[in-house]
Design brief:
By secondary structure, the chain is mostly helical. The protein is built from 8 helices and no strands. The protein is 76% helix and 0% strand.
């Protein structure tokens, strides 16, 4: 029962995030494709004329952060055989980081530093968390392999983004480094819901 509850929570959180971003991008002051290619996810959460549905994007950040913390502490922790303390710490860093992104938007010189800190906590922490999870479960099966691939891919995308922050294509690498965690939440939701 606990597995199913945690799985459903992860599925709801990840699906909500994808839909919220897509809907926010639809109403952003740029074409849908250009929004995904040339505008960061954080821009969708800035309360200004460019993003009339900023509140929807920010709610998705907060929800996915709460979802991750709840599911990992409520049930997924039981599948972690080693490195549990690091697992808990990285889960909190990642979850709190995403929540900070949702509560403190970018684009404001007074708060953008906190927003950036939250983003780094979420993206870097999240992808390291995935790699840790893949190495900390009892058996190394297809689920762990997928988790490892997502984490490594996300880290590579993060570092490409980090060293190309002025590139017009930076938002693509940002999304690639963020989506690994969202995909993992969805896959883990399916995994737990079936147990």
């Amino acid at each position: 029962m606990k597995s199913r509850v945690a799985g459903i929570v992860l599925l709801i959180g990840s699906i909500y995030y994808i839909l919220a971003e897509a809907i926010s991008a639809t109403y952003f002051k740029a074409s849908f494709v250009n929004t995904y290619l040339f505008h960061t996810i954080s821009e969708l959460g800035i309360p200004n004329g460019n993003s009339p549905l900023f509140w929807l994007m920010n709610s998705a950040f907060i929800l996915i952060g709460l979802t991750l913390i709840f599911a990992n502490f409520y049930r997924f922790k039981d599948y972690i055989a080693k490195n549990k303390i690091i697992f808990y710490i990285l889960t909190l860093i990642t979850g709190i980081g995403v929540i900070i992104v949702g509560l403190i938007h970018g684009g404001n010189p007074l708060t953008s530093g906190y927003h950036t800190l939250g983003a780094v906590m979420a993206i870097l922490g999240g992808n390291i968390l995935l790699i840790l999870i893949s190495k900390s479960m009892i058996e190394f099966e297809i689920y762990q392999l997928r988790t490892l691939i997502l984490g490594v891919f996300g880290l590579i995308a993060f570092w490409i983004m980090f060293f190309n922050v002025t590139s017009m294509y930076m938002p693509i690498f940002e999304r690639l480094s963020v989506y690994t965690l969202i995909i993992w939440c969805f896959l883990t939701g399916v995994y737990l819901a079936k147990i």
